[in-house]
Design brief:
Layout: H1 8-15, E1 20-25, H2 38-51, H3 81-98, E2 102-107, H4 113-125, E3 130-135, H5 140-149, H6 181-184, H7 189-196, H8 209-228
Family: Belongs to the creatininase superfamily.
GO molecular function, one term: hydrolase activity, acting on carbon-nitrogen (but not peptide) bonds, in linear amides
Protein name: Creatininase family protein
Length: about 230
Amino acid sequence: MKISEMSWTQVEGYLKRSDLCVLPLGSTEQHAGLSLSVDSILAERVAVEAAEPLGVPVFPVVPYGVTPYFLAYPGTVSLRVETYVALTRDILGGLYRQGFRRIVMVNGHGGNAPAGSFAVEWMADHPGTQVKFHNWWSSPATMAKVQETDPVASHASWMENFPWTRLPGDLPTQRKPMIDLNRMRAMDPEKVREYLGDGNFGGLYQRDDAEMQAIWDAGVAETRVVIEGPWG
């Protein structure tokens, strides 16, 4: 259930029987011909679908993350690491004050790793709390399904092209050669754009929706296991 579809009294009632909640983390960054909100859309949707049968509330996705590499692409917004950590601190602090003690961060963007590192530190300062940082797309079962479908998968390629992240219009049909990630990491944003072109790191731009649904189902199931526990 979405917090955005609950009243404060409903949340108060929920907290009398459980202290578990889910916080999706996304970003706003280039994804070639896909939505700039791919990471946010996927993180929130997988969190909601995973949590729904369990009756666990899901907070609105945090739509901005750490993505400095893509700043030369219009529409990309990147937070500084210190800003992102401060934001994470305030959100966790707010959840703690309300009475949540078990929190699952469902992350959809690799650049958000500082939130996971900070959560470990935060737990040490808040005894009795538990925070799980779950990279839904790269977790074992989900990534195994991706690799089984097509081992050439990357940022802004077919593996992020779901019906709910796709925009109207035709996409290239060829398989783009994989980039050199280490080389890209040594570039400034303008050089990154020059090197990447449209933004796809490599691979096909789209695969069959039935294949994508199978990957999605694996991601939802794996995320649900993380939410269910065990805890502590």
